[in-house]
Amino acid sequence: MKHSLLTSLVLFAACGGSPLDPGAGNNAGTGTSTLLVTGSATATPRLANAQQASDFDTAFSVRIQLAGAPVVTGSVTMTSSHGATPLTFTSVGNDAGHWTGDASGYDQVYQLDVTSGADKVSGVIVDGPDIHVITSPTAGATIDSTMPFTATWNRAAEADVARWEMGDGGNGNGIVVPDTGTYSVAPLTLNASKDKAQTNTIRLTRENRVTPAGATTGSELTVGVENELDVVAAPCPSC
After folding, report:
1. Which residue, 197, 189, 133, 149, is CA-closest to 165?
2. What are phi and psi of 60, to 5 degrees?
């Protein structure tokens, strides 16, 4: 039997913990079942292969609709162990139509609360992935792009989704893989030049997802963490 959010709060308080502590688990929350809510909290590193939570920044982006129309008024908040971040609706740029905000660090567990008039989605908690470290290839390694190579990473628990990006600036093809800690990369995945070495960023993003119980069909909240490093594709005369 699933506990309600209130019951979970009471149980964790009694045990000295918090539902916003890593490992506390997910909660689908409650709501009026009138809002379509799709949102994300994505942590990006400030340095290559970051290992500390303080070496990340987390961006929030939430899209909310009521009967097919964007919700532009109300209160949208992302809360973690370090406090609440109120989100702001934006109508310009790449985030147009979304409620957005930012927070320093990566707290792993985030709770979304949405209220707009009588419509609401409350207490949706995603226990996100732990911070992973890319162990192979190593930063600066030179790779023959015509040959397969093995990418490996350390993580404590398997995430719902793992996705590699490889290419110039990490903007190559996204490759969804099982979060097993190892993946065989196919030849010609890296971008290479015929007559000179070419830097490629390889980026691994891992995500956990929850379907809010009090929202309409198609709603989802995702918490993800990225890590990345640069490698060098050797000259490839035959490419």
Report:
1. 189
2. -110, 140
- Taking residue 21's Cβ as centre, other Cβ atoms within 10 Å add up to 15
- Class of the CATH domain delimited by 133-206+228-233: mainly beta
Site of tokens 């310009």:
92
Alpha-carbon distance 25 to 127, whole Å? Answer: 5
DSSP string, 26-75: -B--EE-S-EEEEEEEEEEESSTT--SGGGEEEEEEEEEEETTEE--SSE
Say if pTM beats, i.e. exceeds, 0.70: yes
Give residue-wise pLDDT tens across range 176-196.
Answer: 999 999 999 999 999 999 999
* Domain residue ranges in the chain: 5-129+210-226, 133-206+228-233
Residue 100 near residue 123, CB atoms below 8 Å: no
Retrieve residue 157's tokens.
């628990």
